[in-house]
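Kindly draft a polypeptide, keeping tokens residue-aligned:

***
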Amino acid sequence: MTLKHASILAVLAAGLAAGAVKPPSYTTKYVQLVIFENESHHDIIGNPNAPYMNRLASRWANMTHSYAVAHPSQPNYLALFSGSTQGVTSDGCPVSLASPSLGSELLEAGITFRGYAETMPRNGFVGCHAHPDHLRSGWLYARKHVPWPNFTTVPRSDSWVYRTPLVAPPARFIWITPNMCNDMHDCSIATGDKWASKNLPNLIAWDAAHDGVLILTFDENDGSPGNQIPTILAGNVNPGSYAQRIDHYSVLRTIEDVFRVKPLGEARFATPLEGVVK
């Protein structure tokens, strides 16, 4: 072996060790992520109270072995947005992090990002709660379900109130968090499914025609063993039922690979979704 060949092998080995494997080539150009709350895979898939989500699962790509990474909610949101739970083990607020995140790395790469939160009082809001109500949590808006305000590396100008269904994505990557009722945290599965049926069809139709993918997932399960959750992808995907074991880091890695940005944290070591996204 020549010195030149040895050097090449050393570089390749270092890249593999750091998770810097060249991502596959995707035709997908846009991604939306919509996240719901606290339901196991079996709570949604096959449940007649979730007819819309079940139609999505049967028509598009249904990940049958998808798992959250922690309890309670907030560490899962941080993991999905930054590749790490950031040492957070509770829903305590506020959290302030200078770490890189999916939002900051996309913006640095010149890729547009926008985070949407339903019932947030105004764009750029950083408060912990808003809109008191009489449901279980006492609030319709909770920052623990909205990860980007926790990162000082994401401008407040990219944090928007979600008000009405989007006909087309206003950025190449958007994240949508429904409010505490519509995400199924404080209200029923049927309520969340109805919200999805009103808010997602236009985006999915747009994605199918414009090389976009919508990811519907959950933060964690209902507390039952295993922490298995539903995850469905629609749009520019290969339809089918997929038994690959995935978690939030796998989803993050897939999004990062689509946009060809460096994987963050645990996503460096996660396997992206295989054969699903075109």
